[in-house]
Records
---
Amino acid sequence: MSALRFILGDQLSRSIPALRGIDRHRDHVLMVEVAEETTYVPHHKQKIAFVLSAMRHFAEALRADGIAVDYVRLDDPDNTGSFTGELERAVRRRLPDEVFVTEQGEYRVLEAIEGWNARLNIPVHLRPDDRFFCTTVDFARWAEGRRSYRMENFYRSMRERTGILMQDGEPEGGRWNFDAENRKPWPADRKPPERLRFPPDAVTRDVIDLVDRQFPGHFGDLDGFGWGVTRADALASLESFVADCLPFFGDYQDAMRSGEPFLYHATLSPYLNAGLLTAREVCTRAAEAYAAGHAPLNAVEGFVRQLLGWREFVRGVYWFRMPDYKDTNALGAGRALPSFYWTGETDMNCLAQAIADTRHQAYAHHINRLMITGNFALLAGVAPAEIEAWYLCVYADAYDWVELPNVHGMSTFADGGLMASKPYAAGGAYIDRMSDYCGGCRYRPKLRSGPGACPFNYLCWAFLIRNAPTLGGNHRLAMPYRTIARWDEERRAAILAEAEAFLDGLPTGYP
Ligand code: FAD
Ligand code: DLZ
Ligand code: SF4
């Protein structure tokens, strides 16, 4: 018996189930660079370069370990451009008795995989992806029968189940959550640590040239590409994060700063999502740093919550609710995405900064995603599918399973509160408190209306007025709705008109 073991571009882990039980004398690993994956959205050029270079390095590492790898490059003249086409060609080349593949990360790919058994006439074994703490079956068990899903409840169950940051069945430090301590703005005189960047080697330079040639119209810059592309790079990034950033991760988790995209954030998501690191080893390393007295509990708990909580939670919601999940639009949002999301050309400095970081780094940290680009799209009423496609394009860590719930559920409230108890809508005061963006902006965060007023202010009120039929009864929004109730009809109409005029003046479309 010989087997073909198909490894997809986000499965670059030596522990990947499709590799288990490999016979080095008979089996082949298949890896393919295909146009379908590089173009289903016009991904950031750095994302494509990162994934393809990491794939090529992973294939080399397997070969160095005596494993035969059948690797198809993007510019191979016979490349059919799809997973299915390349698997069919490889089966004809290698004549295996069976195929092993690990569960895909995206629903789109599941639809293709489901046809493989019938097409290939040999058994295709789809193995569950056990790199996550929570299986899709366990999540379904947790979620079944609930009307809404709250991350905090899920996270506590995961802490209990894994024993991470637990003492004798109780949460370490006597509390589950240290969020209240984790909202400090960035002090003006503080300098974030230098981050580990990796100068491209010959393989990465080849891939960068390929991406430059083949995807000139895609979003983002390639200069300054500094992502690691091997398991060793990813481990070095983890160690550097633990040493220099983790101790302060909690305190400044929500802070934003011009020209400083990373602050104390991990910048590990591309490695985690491609398989170069596992969430288990990252959480273990963080818990060790706490045990050794290197990092305080508010930092380590805050960090572990992102991985053991949020990351597992969004994956659970994705697989439990897809494919219908993406079609809901609870707030009836239908505006086209403003062009400045692609060009960065806007006089709203917060958006210009967050989008510039995104172009240059294929990265922006969570609060820039949620409270700047996400918040604006929410307030403007951008159609969920349009803003989802943008997020799926622009970040090196973007995959449907993690992007979609974050955007559809958390950021746009398109699922009507399945994941979040209220929309993350905020005016200029929040952005001014948590960043230095407003100081460099032509608008004033304290002005509510008029030519110099921060657009987030009147957009936020207009959002609440417009969506009163859906959100008016939400007890977490009782305070702003009480304020609105004191206004007369004329004042509400004026706010709506100011917001409409501003939004109607924004060019839309991909430039
Ligand atoms: P840190 O802030 O240092 O957090 C550590 C790790 O926790 C991250 O590496 C990540 O693996 C995990 N994590 C943190 N928050 C989340 C979250 N909300 N959901 C899932 N995992 C989380 N993350 C992606 O990996 N891919 C995406 O496509 C993506 N799209 C997003 C879109 C929106 C609108 C929002 C609000 C968030 C999105 N996130 C996404 C979550 C989060 O912003 C990123 O994981 C994080 O910014 C990655 O940077 P970091 O490694 O420095 O994270
Ligand atoms: C993101 C990505 C890109 C850009 N290119 C490839 C590719 O050429 N070959 C490949 O195997 N994977 C790629 N990926 C990652 C896939 O999109 C990801 O593996 C699927 O979505 C399955 O979740
Ligand atoms: Fe953004 Fe408003 Fe501040 Fe300008 S004033 S940076 S638009 S929040």
---
Amino acid sequence: MSTNQLPAAPLAASHMKVLLTREQIARRVAEMGREISRDFHGQSVVLVGVLKGATIFLAELARRIELDATFDFFGVSSYADSTHRSGEVRLTKDVDTSLEGRNVILVEDILDTGLTMNYLKNVVMTHQPRSFKIAALLDKPARRIQPIEADYLGFTIPNEFVVGYGLDYAEHYRNLPDICILPPEGYSAG
Ligand code: IMP
């Protein structure tokens, strides 16, 4: 999200409606960790997070996976504002390690239009991984353009703009422990 859309002042979390509490998130992420541990029993996995939104989810999910796991990260920028409706995704940071022959789990905060995940899936596939799965904390199916689904999904949510637990608006709110709905006053230009 570009910084020229900064709100005048970030809203206090107390002015936002909590959609998912930290307890609900922790419980679901623990279940997801158990599912992954079961599916890849006896194997190793590489968790590839998408910067920066997936960092908190990846940190908590990783600690719930009882397997040999390594981390890597992609950076992306997308053009989703009013002047760039093409949905073009650009890689700003590639992975540092080879994904060839690895069990790759792409870890993302939210599946929205699906353009980012579809793009990154194609990038990962060029590495010829042994297997490829997507773990997404949130899914907003109402806005999907690319028909891509998560293999491990935390929660399906309504078509609202959410912040917290890694998700931002203009880089703010990533450190909120709960996932909150950003009200209209949170969008006011600075
Ligand atoms: P997609 O390519 O449209 O699926 O977009 C995925 C990216 O858009 C996510 O990784 C987020 O960075 C961002 N995004 C989509 N919806 C939200 C939201 O409700 N809050 C914060 N970021 C969002």
